[in-house]
Amino acid sequence: MTEKEQIKTRILDEIETTQQMVEKYRDLTKPIAPENAIGRVSRMDAINNKSVNEAALKKAELKLKNLQVALTKLDDADFGICVRCKNPIPLGRILLMPQAITCVNCAR
């Protein structure tokens, strides 16, 4: 299996996993009905949990979008090249974070 095939497989796997997470977070961020008799403190906990899940949903949606962009750019000549320093991004980083557009040093 070539590096490009490895990366494509990894991106497709990550897209599938991320789509599942997006669906899970969407379910967890549904509105909390005011008629739920769960008590004031429990209701406040539910509202707090909802806001945490909404943040996780936004992060997962952004990751999904970035993965889809990475998949379309896989055949580009500059795929795997850091956008800041123009050095190659190590294969290990690309396999770990297929949506990465910077090397580790530039990501800091």
Structure write-up:
It is a single chain. The protein has 108 residues and is mostly helical. The protein has helices at residues 3-28, 40-72, 91-96, 104-107. It has one domain: Four Helix Bundle (Hemerythrin (Met), subunit A), CATH 1.20.120.910. α1 (3-28) runs antiparallel to α2. The chain starts with a helix and ends with a helix.
Spans of at least 5 consecutive residues whose pLDDT stays below 50 are none
Query: Going by CATH, what is the homologous superfamily?
Result: DksA, coiled-coil domain
Tally the structural domains: 1
Shape, principal axes of CA atoms: elongated
How do the helices and strands follow one another from N- to C-terminus?
A: HHHH
**What is the CATH topology classification name?**
Four Helix Bundle (Hemerythrin (Met), subunit A)
How many separate helices? 4
- The CATH C-level name is Mainly Alpha
Overall helicity? 55-70%
What is the strand tally? 0
Overall structural class, as computed from helix and strand content, comes to mainly alpha
Short summary:
The chain has 108 residues and is mostly helical. Helices cover 64% and strands 0% of the residues. The chain has a single domain (3-107), classed as Four Helix Bundle (Hemerythrin (Met), subunit A) (Up-down Bundle).
What would the keywords be for this entry?
108 residues, mainly alpha, Four Helix Bundle (Hemerythrin (Met), subunit A), 4 helices
